[in-house]
Amino acid sequence: MFEPRNLSSSVSAVRDLHAPDALVFDCARDFETLAPAQAEDLGLVVDGLEPTSYPDEWLPADTPALLARYAGSEFTIGMPGDGSIVWTHQTAPPVVLVKPRIEGSPDPFVDFLLAEAFVELGLEVPEHFLGFFEAEYREFDRAVDLEPAGTYQIAAALYDGWVGLQSRDVFAEWHADHSDLAAAWQDAGSRLEGRVSELPRAVARGDTDFADAAELACAAIKHALELPAPFAALETEAYRDHGSSYAVRWAEKTFDALSE
Question: What's the domain count of the chain?
Fold first, then answer.
């Protein structure tokens, strides 16, 4: 299931700086959430397993079953929306997992995603948005006037944006020492720029729903792109500093405005 992956010199240098102990494996099969039995197979290649769980009182009554299972005591890695590369610090040392679906992606982009995973490990941010919102997730759920799946998507997007506010400072430093990674970061941002600028019109026309728009806008934060309203309020130091409390207030104001 897990095969060690070779890294380019630039990616290795980023790992040495931000997550020197991290192990990187190619996975034999794609997954959204790695089955507990497969996750526990990591015990064969790491020194120890440290499963994370979250209190039941953090979850709304209508929480999707997959999120409720993730919050429980089973050793679970990965959730929908995590992308092609997943990291976890539920293992000792931490692990980065590369899914087969990344095959065919340009090598520079893959290198950027790997380097991003090491940077995020070094930031020591929570592994999932539940660890970001904590007990405030119920308050966030009340603020978001969507079905549970849409609420989940926006919560994951806001968490991604909050992490991006921190990681992009590191990415911007790559121009000096890792120009290949810096170029890949900028190229990925340029590919998003047109779509992000069109978001208000796409939502107004019904071509894009609000949860998808939030996901795209928050993904653009790590590329330091200019965001349209109401997402521009997330591209701020205030969000970086106040985190989940700011996200809840943003959701309240945004969905109040949408309901008018």
Answer: 1
247: domain range? 2-259
User: How far is 200 from 210, CA to CA, in rounded Å?
Assistant: 10
Summarised one tens digit per residue, pLDDT across range 131-163 is 999 999 999 999 999 999 999 999 999 999 999
Task: Please report the sign of the dihedral spanned by the C-alpha atoms of residue 175, residue 178, residue 180, residue 181.
Answer: negative
Identify the three-state secondary structure at position 36: helix
Contact of 155 with 139, CB cutoff 8 Å: no
Task: Note the residue count of the chain.
Answer: 260
Residue 259 pLDDT greater than 80, yes or no: no
The 8-class DSSP code of residue 128 comes to S
Compute the distance between CA of residue 59 and CA of residue 147 in angstroms, rounded to an integer.
Answer: 14
Q: Which residues contact 89 (CB under 8 A, 6 or more apart)?
A: 50, 121, 124, 127
Residue 147 CB neighbours (<10 A): 12
